[in-house]
Amino acid sequence: MRFFNRHGWERTLLLTATAIVAAFAFSCSKKCGDTVYDAKTQFCYNNSVIADKCDGKEYNPETQFCHENSIVEKCNGKEYDLATQFCYKNSVIANKCDDGREYDAETKFCFRNELLDKCGGNEYDPETQFCDTRDNVVYKYVKIDKQIWMAQNLNYKPQNGKSWCYGGDSSNCAQYGRLYDWETAKKVCPKGWHLSFMKDWANLGKAAGGTLTWVDDEVEGGFDVWKGDAGKRLKAKNGWKDGDGTDDYGFSALPGGLRNFNGGFDKVGVYGVWWQNEQTSDFLYYTSMDYNDGNMGFGRGFVSDIKNDGYSVRCVKN
User: Fold this and answer.
1) What is the pTM of this model?
2) What rounded mean pLDDT belongs to the chain?
3) CB neighbours of residue 108 within 10 Å
4) What b/e string do you get for 248-268 counting C-beta neighbours within 10 Å, with b at 16 or more?
5) String of DSSP letters for 158-202
6) Average pLDDT in the 13-27 region?
7) How far is CA 72 from the centre of its chain?
8) How far apart are CA 163 and CA 156, in angstroms?
């Protein structure tokens, strides 16, 4: 009588199954260059690039990509999210508006579902910035109390009028803005903005927690000073010689210095002076901050003495 060897039969089946799996795996594995890949789910492009198939299909990974099982052309060689982005003229990847709208991405951008013009080809944040369309420069702005101020000194060079970069150096314009004489300062702010009045500066000093104090002066007769660290709270956090501020309100006052009527430049880095939109028969007015204290001062000078000086300009929204 012959007996059935159960363990031998199971071992034979296991070896056979293993051989079948190995043979199947070998048949599904191929090499792309020197690298093995799974031919069932992947493919080899140009004998150098291994890519996943797209719903079982192969494609050109240099110019195409797979998005949700569909083969899509790249945008200037780049992949993008078709759900939230679009390709403009096969060159620019842009975000769709919230409602899915596409648009001319070379000149416009979408912000909170609103189409806006780019500023010199660049996007910006309209909640904190605006575009001066005269020269396509983006400026920061900030709301302090009920007023909206430019958070930077103006750096626009008008076709008519007098303005200067401190010391004739354009890098000073980039950092501190331009210096303007009185006649130019009065009309240089962008449309919808105005040169800051004394009342604008007074509201600013009050909002910054300053206390208005009258200071006697033998030459000018006296001037107002907002004490109590109003200036310190309005100064930028860096850029001042040993007297940087805390910039509590984002006003970022900088010491752009001044240009004297005789053409000399003075006090950059230690002193900031801004025209006020005020004039009497005898006087012109300005606001100043010094590096060695935390005050904000209101000064004045005889029209004939300072009208040709160059001071900084801060604009306020109408």
Assistant:
1) 0.78
2) 88
3) 14
4) ebebbbbbbbbbeeeeebebb
5) -SSS-EE-GGG-HHHHHHH--EE-HHHHTT-SPTTEEEPPHHHHH
6) 44
7) 32
8) 9
Say how far apart CA 50 and CA 196 lie, in whole Å. Answer: 64
What pLDDT, on a 0 to 100 scale, did the predictor assign at position 28? Answer: 63
pLDDT digits (tens, 9 = 90+) for 219-248: 444 556 777 789 999 999 999 988 789 999
pLDDT at 242: 80
Task: Compute the Cα dihedral for 181, 187, 270, 175 and give only its sign.
Answer: negative
Cβ neighbours of residue 159 under 8 Å, at least 6 residues apart? none
The pair of structure tokens assigned to 318 is 């109408």
Please give the full DSSP string across 90-109, using - where no structure is assigned: TTEEEEPPTT-----TTTEE
* Token pair listed for 60: 């050109």
Q: What is the mean pLDDT of residues 271-296?
A: 93
Q: What are phi and psi of 170, to 5 degrees?
A: -65, -25
pLDDT for 39 beyond 50: yes
